Amino acid sequence: MSTIQPKAVILLSGGMDSLVTTAIAHAEGFTLAAMHVNYGQRTWQKELESFRAICNHYNIEQRLEVNADFLGQIGGSSLTDYSMPVSGADLQGGTIPTSYVPFRNAGFLSMAVSWSEVIGASKIFIGAVEEDTSGYPDCRKIFYDAFNKVIELGTKPETVIEILTPLIEMQKSDIVRKGMELGAPFNLSWSCYKSEGKACGVCDSCARRLRAFELVDVRDPIDYERRLLYIP
User: Fold this and answer.
1) Cα 116–chain centre separation
2) Domain with 63 in it: what CATH number?
3) Which residues form the domain of 154?
């Protein structure tokens, strides 16, 4: 007798973390539905291209591409306000960088919960990372624990939806190792905050990605304008 696989929604930006999160959910046997949000970010076209390529790789047929450009209208982030410079590499993560989009993940999760309740998904996967992030407040485990309580209180009594953050306590290098173990197609992902042709190699996101690959002694398969070394 065949069993029905549980359904999960993946918040898939197209970046390295969301790619490996997708690989994990796929390996765990979930039927996947993928959500991507365009919010006026500088590299939205490349990120959308990566989202579609990753979905094709994992044969994810149920997809939702959401326009949330109100975040761009609100501003306050160098990802959406082109008058603000994108932060360079800050591998110590001492301050919240200009790339922080105010309360972005709460909006993304709210949309994912709405969709999950409609399509019958019991899990929401998001590639949030606490230990090796740039200090985004909405990437902390305590935030997701609290949001799970919000879901419990704000959905129908019979609805059971849980946010899962499989990478939350991992370092970037561990994420690369996990992705390699699962055969994740890193060449399809995009992490750069500034460029859509070749990755810039100098923004905080590129630096963290490059350092992670250096630490596992593997060459990052995407192209960079500047492929700097970030470990001694």
Assistant:
1) 18
2) 3.40.50.620
3) 7-215
Asked if 187 and 35 touch (Cβ cutoff 8 Å), the reply is no
φ, ψ for residue 36, nearest 5 deg: -130, 140
Number of domains in the chain: 1
**Angle 16-27/44-57 helices, nearest 10 degrees?**
20
Is 1 contained in some domain? Answer: no
Pairwise CA distance, residues 168 & 80, whole Å:
25
Type of residue at 114: S
In order along its 232 residues, the chain shows pLDDT tens digits of 456 789 999 999 999 999 999 999 999 999 999 999 999 999 999 999 999 999 999 999 999 999 999 999 999 999 999 899 887 777 776 678 888 999 999 999 999 999 999 999 999 999 999 875 567 899 999 999 999 999 999 999 999 999 999 999 999 999 999 999 999 999 999 999 999 999 999 999 999 999 999 999 999 999 999 999 898 6
219: Cβ–Cβ under 8 A, 6 or more apart, which residues?
213
> Any bridge partners for residue 88, and if so which?
203
Tell me the Ramachandran region of residue 19: left when phi exceeds 0, alpha when psi lies from -120 to 50, beta otherwise. alpha
Tell me phi and psi for residue 162, to 5 degrees. Answer: -130, 135
Residue 31 lies in a domain: yes
How far from the centroid of its chain's Cα atoms is residue 133's Cα?
Answer: 12
Instruction: Identify the residue whose tokens are 């930006």.
Output: 13
Beta bridge partners of 124: 9, 163
